[in-house]
Design brief:
Elements: E1 7-8, E2 48-49, E3 58-63, E4 66-73, E5 78-81, H1 83-88, E6 93-97, E7 107-116, E8 130-134, E9 154-155, E10 161-166, E11 182-188, H2 191-199, E12 211-215, E13 236-239, E14 242-249, E15 260-264, H3 265-276
Antiparallel strand pairs: 1-9, 2-11, 3-4, 3-6, 4-5, 5-8, 6-7, 7-8, 10-11, 10-13, 11-12, 12-15, 13-14, 14-15
EC number: 3.4.21.4
Organism: Clunio marinus
Catalytic activity: Preferential cleavage: Arg-|-Xaa, Lys-|-Xaa
Length: 278
Amino acid sequence: MKHSLFKPSPQGSRLLIRKMSFTATGILFIFLLKNVESGFRFQIIHGYDTAIKNHPHQASYHSQNVFVCGASVLSEKYVLTAAHCTEQYRRDVTVRVGSSFYNKDGVVIAVAEIFQHPGFDLISYNNDFSVLLLEQELAFSDSIKPVYLPNDNEIIPTGTECKISGFGVKAENSMTASEQLQATDVIVVDHAKCAESYIASPLFFEITEQMICAADADPESSKDNRDSCSGDSGGAIICSGYQVGVISAGNGCGRENFPGIYASVAQGRGWIRDITGI
């Protein structure tokens, strides 16, 4: 039986926005924007080194032996990532799990099939989900564990404390991924205020009910707020023990008035269940 932490939300919403993909040696920084010069991001800003045992769901997505994005373990057979990660990078795909590093240790398993959400598009970033079917089943351990998923259409209340993790860059202008897993704390921010910030910006991004916004819980603590950045896309935002979102997009990294954007797992829950049975 699933335990519901959040309240059901109304049906019939759309989704949006975009992020960037990463390589081990530099950046593939795919600026998936409407020809707008902006720093759509991917990694953990103002985070801290952490170990995989603290985030055993964490995985990394690789194409042709190049690190592209983060991901999360759903079950022995399935891994969840962002659709914008799989849109471009689908050749010789592998997933590394059970490691505090994206380039060593742990277990590397080939991906047998990629299920990209049929409703995803690079303009709106609606439905930014892809499920990966592994060629071999994972053996769970202290370093490899599945995430818990919320129920369909649950709403995550404003102010909910969450954690994000990943191997992305540590600063917006950096071009080097973090070999060591990084993590930091954020909170869910008011959806309407987040939408106002993005729609009023030159980016003119629409934040829909299929998205979650999260930002630094203490924005006055530093000039650059805690956030995800390049290379973190596809990873999980964990709130109250549940993966409520997939790291998807944002304007720069830790910029004032621009929270990180996450694809709402509760909104994509039905599709994930159809693919995985979970």
